[in-house]
Design a protein that fits this description.
Oligomer: single chain
Number of domains: 1
Largest sheet: 7 strands, antiparallel
Mean pLDDT: 79
Strand content: 25-35%
Length: 189
């Protein structure tokens, strides 16, 4: 049995670096910025580029999903909900929010799946988690909890699944199997 001397031990910074390599938020943290806006639906949001939502949606591999805009037929308007209509009303309405139009920083986290609550015709949603100490601080200045509705993390809805999309029914997309010719470009010479 041999003993290691204290001088033979690795530097503590190596352990820290090794641990940080497994922390996805530290490896992929990029500060993004969006403007604080009030919507016609009564929400206070941070505007997010629709291309971000579209890119995440296009990279997902989940059966039966739709873009959030396809669920209600409206235009895709991506955003991070900062205050719900009820919360915004409790602080005196959108006109009381002096920070509207100002930029707020956020970083992206992982995509999480959750049941859709309060969204008729939708069973499941996928959210891109968002970390923003600035938004938590803003909510606290208006006497609200740091998170939306008390315990909900900030997030961006990137995909939805309508109710019943994956249930079996009598409709079939294939009535007769036809073999398609192999395109010329796929043949080996």
């Amino acid at each position: 049995m041999s003993l290691l001397s204290v001088t033979d031990l690795p530097d503590i910074r190596h352990f820290k670096l090794y641990a940080d390599c497994f922390d996805l938020e530290k490896r992929a943290e990029v500060k993004l910025t969006g403007l604080l806006q009030a919507t016609n639906s009564g929400h206070l949001i941070i505007g997010v580029p629709t291309a971000l939502v579209r890119g995440v949606f296009d990279a997902m591999h989940e059966p039966g999903i739709s873009l959030p805009s396809a669920v209600d037929g409206g235009l895709l308007r991506a955003g991070i909900v900062v205050m719900t209509p009820k919360e915004l009303e409790s602080v005196g309405g959108a006109n009381k929010i002096t920070e509207r139009g100002k930029p707020f920083n956020y970083t992206l986290g992982s995509v999480v799946e959750s049941p859709a609550s309060g969204w008729p015709g939708v069973s499941t949603c996928w959210h891109l988690k968002v970390n923003s100490p600035d938004l938590s601080k803003l909510r606290k200045t208006y006497g609200l909890s740091a998170k939306v509705q008390g315990d909900s993390d900030f997030s961006i809805v990137v995909a939805c699944r309508k109710t019943g999309v994956l249930s079996s029914n009598a409709v079939s997309k294939v009535t007769e199997q036809k073999t398609a010719p192999v395109p010329d470009w796929s043949l080996l010479d």
